[in-house]
Design goal:
With 359 residues, the chain is an alpha/beta fold. It contains twelve helices and 16 strands. The strands form three sheets. Strands 11-10-9-8-12-6-13-16-15 form a nine-stranded mixed beta sheet, with helices on both faces. α3 packs parallel to α4.
Length: 359
């Protein structure tokens, strides 16, 4: 199953709205087939593994990171493929929360005479497919906030200069994060200040650039910005409000304009935005925006993971903080996270945190 989970990670960022699944088929203590969800979500992992196994799949055991689907979509259900191949045993890590399967896949395999073992490394599988689980169960993508700061949490000097807080190794890690997420989001302030391209520029992974999303209530993003000018090459979405001026000038450039209800300040409502992104099939959202967008996500308790790159520098009060104020009046009102990983990245440190449930 650990091998199947490693295969599943290959699809992160390129298979949405589908889950990223891995499958390993074993017979007589030998791997006879391997598969993972292909870009765009099809073929599914089981189909790929069975194709590679061929006749050797008969009587074998398949290790699958998610319950095989049991419904007809653009392709027949994977349960049918597994039954037709004559497998003797199927071990899965997670039950599929999609109502079209939701245990029905396991039931059909058992009814067809296949031994089924469930919950094999279920926690590890839930981590890998947390984005898919979030979209199905809560209607929104998994939100990961990535930031790069000094030791005292500053993302830029007082004049706005931020290149470079962290070193090249940390920046490469940041690009790897982009490659494993469906979309990347920033606020229009960051877009105007930094003129970013928001693409993945790791050698060999240039085709893994995520959908680029800009929160822009007044549609201030210039038409000659790199994001707009390359919108036909890399999908680019702008989230705005209903009365934003002349959105057609962006759609004419290939930008997808999404209109949502405003919040009390007239900006795109953050929960409504995430719901809209979930409806479009996004499962994993990486947020690289400035302190204002991070604060809105904190205020609404919508950050699931933090990836924090920290350099050894200190700016003090002259620097700009990573997260703007979001209404914390007492320490017990602060958002709480649990550190799950810490490792050196060049001269810097990368820490990964997960949100602690409220209350």
């Amino acid at each position: 199953m650990r091998a199947a989970l490693a295969l599943a990670r290959r699809g992160l960022g390129v298979v949405w709205p589908n889950p990223s699944v891995g499958c390993v088929i074993v017979k007589d203590d030998r791997v006879v087939g391997r598969g993972w969800t292909q870009p765009g979500g099809r073929p599914h992992a089981e189909t790929e593994a069975l194709r590679r196994a061929g006749a050797a799949a008969k009587g074998a055991c398949a290790y699958v990171t998610l319950e095989p689907c049991n419904h007809f979509g653009e392709t027949p259900p994977c349960t049918s493929a597994l039954l037709d191949a004559g497998l003797a045993r199927v071990a899965t890590a997670l039950k599929d929360p999609d109502a079209r399967t939701a245990g029905g896949g396991h039931d059909r395999l058992r009814e067809g005479g296949i031994e089924v073992v469930t919950d094999v490394l279920g926690n590890e599988a839930a981590w890998v497919n947390a984005g898919f689980l979030s979209r199905v169960q809560s209607g929104r993508p998994l939100v990961t906030l990535k930031t790069a700061t000094t030791l005292d949490g500053k993302i830029a000097a007082s004049g706005g200069a931020s290149q470079w807080i962290t070193g090249p190794e940390a920046r490469q890690r940041g690009h790897l994060l982009r490659a494993t997420h469906d979309a990347i989001m920033i606020g229009v302030g960051t877009a105007l200040a930094d003129a970013p391209s928001l693409t993945c520029r790791l050698a060999g992974l240039e085709d893994r650039s995520p959908v680029r999303i800009v929160m822009d209530s007044k549609l201030r993003l210039p038409l000659d910005s790199v994001l707009v000018e390359t919108a036909r090459e890399v999908p680019t979405w702008i989230v705005t409000v209903g009365d934003a001026p002349n959105p057609d000038r962006f759609t004419d450039c290939g930008v997808d304009v999404i209109q949502v209800d405003p919040d009390s300040a007239g900006r795109p409502d953050v929960p409504a935005t995430l719901d809209a992104l979930g409806q479009r099939g996004l499962t994993r959202l990486l947020v690289e925006g400035g302190g204002g967008l991070a604060a809105e996500l904190m205020r609404n308790d919508l950050i699931d993971r933090l990836v924090w790159f920290r350099s050894a520098g200190v700016m003090g009060g002259d620097g700009i903080g990573a997260i703007a104020g979001y209404g914390v009046t007492h320490p017990d009102k602060a958002a709480l996270f649990k550190r799950v990983e810490s490792l050196p990245v060049g001269a810097d440190t990368m820490e990964v945190f997960v949100r602690r449930p409220s209350g």
